[in-house]
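Work through what follows:
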Amino acid sequence: MAFTKNRILNGTEGKVYIDGEPVYNVDRIDVKVSIDYDDINLNGEYVTQHRYMGASISGTVSLHKFDSYLVELYAQHIARGTIPPVRIDVALYDPQTQQRQSVALYDVQFEEVDLGSFTNKELLTEDMPFNAGSFEVLEVISE
């Protein structure tokens, strides 16, 4: 299919769910799979080769601050030494293009909990970096 500007997805209708519950205050989410390689240097070769060794999943969800969701979720568990994994679903949808893409992230653990921060005369957001144990592609953009 030929490229047209109207097929570029708009992020406004994107959705995030944590353990099946919609997160309405999402400002932004970034999720990436980093692919790990080991270098292979062969005698007589000037170009380094690479061998796939695995991957890691990480991301950050940025929320408009209006509740204490993460503080409540993690406060009791941090003291006990039991950090609960969660599932995050990320769904892209654009009503103009009728295109969808969605992924499920499993065994997600948040890496930081913001206990309190602010800047005068600014709306509050909180960044929640996380890692995940695995992912599943649920829907892909069709042509």
Strands lie at 15-18, 21-22, 26-40, 49-64, 86-94, 99-110, 125-132, 134-139. The mean pLDDT is 91.
